[in-house]
Amino acid sequence: MIWELPVIALRTIVVLPRTLENVDVGRPKSKRALEEAQAADNRVLLLAQREPRVDDPGQDDLYDVGTLGIVKQVIRLPDDTLQVLVEGRERARILNYLSGPTLRARVETMNESAPNRDDPKVRALVEQVKAAFEQYAQQNKGLRLDSFHLENLRTLRDAGPLADLIGKYSAWGVADKQAVLEETDAGKRLEKVYGLLSRDLERIDTEKQISARVKQQMDANQREYYLREQMKAIQRELGGEEGVGEIEELRNKIEAKRLPEHAHKRANKELERLEKMPGGSPEATVVRTYLDVLLELPWNEADEEQLDIKHTETILSEDHYGLEEPKERIIEFLAVRQLTKEVRDANYKAPILCFVGPPGVGKTSLGKSIARSLGRAFVRMSLGGVRDEAEIRGHRRTYIGSLPGRIIQGMRTAGKINPVFLLDEIDKMTADFRGDPASALLEVLDPEQNNTFQDHYLELPYDLSKVMFITTANTMMTIPRPLLDRMEVIQIPGYTLDEKVEIAKRFRLPRQLQEHGLAERLAVTTDAIRKVITEYTREAGVRNMDRNIAKVARKSAKEYLVAPWPEVKTVAAEEVRKLLGVPPYRDDQAEKEPQVGLTHGLAWTAVGGVTLDIEAVAVPGKGKLTLTGQLGDVMKESAQAGIAYLRNHSQKFGIPHDFYENRDLHVHVLEGATPKDGPSAGIAIATAVVSALTQRPLRGDIAMTGEITLRGRVLPIGGIKEKLLAAHQAGIKEVIIPEANQANLEEVPEAILSELTVTAVRDFTHVLELMLHKRPGGAEAEVFVPPPVTDEGTGKAPVAAV
Fold it and tell me: 614 pairs with which residues across the strands?
């Protein structure tokens, strides 16, 4: 049968015959088609769109087969949409579209062919389809199907109505339902429906199997993510989003940081612990702090080295005058690094240097200059007064307020894995019940071990092998031998007078004038600088010199403000006393006049070389020996050995043979408030005793140093360079040293040696020959002439190295 009907286009619905459907009509064309249908006999053609996104479908956008439906009810909704209840009656095919403002078409109803429902095959197919649909309905909870509808389906026996009704309730797409609609053979239509049901049931079963398999085989990352999301939800309930954001931030930092494998595992483990803790708990704070330390430490970040020898020489010379030996050692280090740059990263072991010298000679500032010349970060750590091992290795995290050791904190501050690390005042560490920090430093300063340094707080091996460690000390005597054995010691002696003058002119004076605003207003002559050094300081370094120069600048700044001078003012040597006051020292400190019982000894201290005036007197008594001046045990034993030698050779030296029975000896070393120790004053004490017992004056322009034995031998001692510098500064013109120390004269600046007469001796007899005073005109004042002394067992006279 042929009809002319208005057409309503449907986006996502296919209306099948013998079914009721609610259709929403909102487009103008569809509304006009509905009005035409209502104005006539309520018949309308319902066609599905091929593409649901088309808002104004034309003829080509619609399927050719649709459903002839009857409008049963129309309800206007608040948004002006019409909700239409339609009943599908018959299948209809488009013959042609009619022109007009609305979609109208000539359609022809399609005849259906139905199989015999009593056919066993048909009955079997009907039952299979019913069973399949019941199973399909159970698996799809979203189907709007109640028990009433299911019961209606169970009662159907005809293939056509059953196929259409199942098509209505199924969740198939438009294309599948359109295929069911276009099939006029009821048997084939039911087979098509059965195929679609079987397809969906197989898909549902596959999805179930996959879900079960995935659930069983969920890997660690998926499970972790699931648990993490749950933890986020719990934390949101407990403390808002802040804790969640912090965890994610830490996780991102861990992934971005190139941590070694062992550190990466530890960081993730601690982060997992942190996620499970309440945000405000004390334990969470400890873990958070630990992760911050772990992430702020440099693990792979390194400064690019400047392996340019000329550049390094320039930097070191700009910052320091003199100090040739440490400068040369740094240049040697750079030369080796430059020649082995292809293999340096694999076998690299940074040197560990120990600068030993008096205060104020530039040990610490030299470390800074080395870092600047190499282009590396610089870290300084003072060890003075450190007595707790935890200062080096850190505290374990079981303690409240625990922190990493100062080594790890220094690396954290540097931010690079290859800084120059200065351990200042390594000789001033002490030990108590909390441990020995010097022992903890053994691992730090051992190139064979420090690539796996263990900090108690970090609890991870940390690589310190690329760090260039430099230590400083005033003396090696208080440094434990195992620790000293791991370092390369470089002696930095005190400066000579000429070196101090150059340092003042090049560095200290310009800086002080700049800091006091007198850079273009004041000048200081070389003689004035020399006067400041010789009469207002007594030191191996330049700190007191710098303070006195600063005092000159302060006084001059005050004078300038009171009465400004128009031109650059020059401070001459005569004006120094006006600015600095009475000199605490005299230029020539040593007493040069010959005296009985007075000798000038030489000693080495932590602040450099010094002269020691040694006095001896012999008074009536019973042979008592008194030693004063805060002498140490070694110095007392050296004095006793010298006096024992004199008792054994009293006749040879013209000493009363019974002096040890009726004379008391008192030996005093001046500057009694200063502790003194060591064997190097042995010959000076023995010489003073000889003078006191024989009442012969001794020369006052000679200083001496050397250890004496019971056989009168003069043994070598240390600190020759410092002692000669001290003698020169005290105005001494001649120095006696042990013969075995002649090789050490190479360390003494040529400018000093040129102004000193250095005599090397190996026997005490030769010391007396030099020290006994001669009268004017060359005649000796009752000088005792000693007989030749033979070597034991040889019978030969010794050769004096004078």
Answer: 599, 669
Collapsed DSSP state (helix, strand, coil) of residue 239 = helix
225-239 burial: b if 16+ Cβ within 10 Å, else e: eeebeebbeebeeee
Question: Residue 317 catalytic?
Answer: no
What is the pairing mode between strands 663-669 and 625-628? parallel
Q: Is 683 helix (H, G, I), strand (E, B) or coil?
A: helix
Confidence at residue 603, expressed as pLDDT on a 0 to 100 scale = 85
- Residue 92 CB coordination number (10 Å): 25
How far apart are alpha carbons 376 and 411 in whole angstroms?
A: 12
Radius of gyration of the chain (CA): 53
Q: Is 113 a catalytic residue?
A: no
User: Which whole-number Å values give the CA distances from 326 to 322, 355, 357, 658, in the listed order?
Assistant: 10, 8, 12, 55
- Single pTM value for the model: 0.59
Rounded CA-CA distance 259/297 in Å is 10
d(CA 501, CA 488): 30
**Dihedral sign of CA atoms 464, 465, 468, 470 in order:** positive
- Cβ neighbours around 743 below 10 Å, total: 9
pLDDT of 550 strictly over 90: yes
**What distance in Å separates the CA atoms of residue 752 and residue 728, rounded to the nearest whole number?**
7
Q: What values do phi and psi take at 619, rounded to 5?
A: -125, 155
pLDDT tens, position by position, 562-594: 888 888 889 898 888 888 888 887 654 556 788
* Helix residue ranges, H only, 140-158: 147-155
How far is 53 from 11, CA to CA, in rounded Å? 8
pLDDT at 686: 93
**Active-site residue identified among 130, 168, 177, 723:** 723
Q: Which of 350-359, 433-442, 741-750 has the lowest mean pLDDT?
A: 433-442
d(CA 57, CA 50): 9
90-99, 242-251, 352-361: range with lowest mean pLDDT: 242-251
List 373, 556, 680, 691, catalytic entry:
680
- Which amino acid type is present at position 393? R
Helices and strands (H, E) in the chain, number of each type: 29, 26
> Under a CB-based contact definition with an 8 Å cutoff, are residues 651 and 673 in contact?
no
> How much is the pLDDT for 220?
59
524 φ/ψ sector (left φ>0, alpha ψ -120 to 50, else beta): beta
Least confident of 388-402, 521-535, 775-789: 775-789
- Of the candidates 17, 27, 36, 121, the one whose C-alpha atom is nearest the C-alpha of residue 82 is 27
> Residue 185 is which amino acid?
D
Distance CA 551, CA 145 (A): 104
Per-chain mean pLDDT for the chain? 83
pLDDT tens-place string over residues 87-136: 999 999 998 988 878 888 999 998 888 888 788 888 888 888 888 888 88
CA atoms of 463 and 634, how far apart (whole Å): 44
**What 3-state DSSP class applies to 648?**
helix
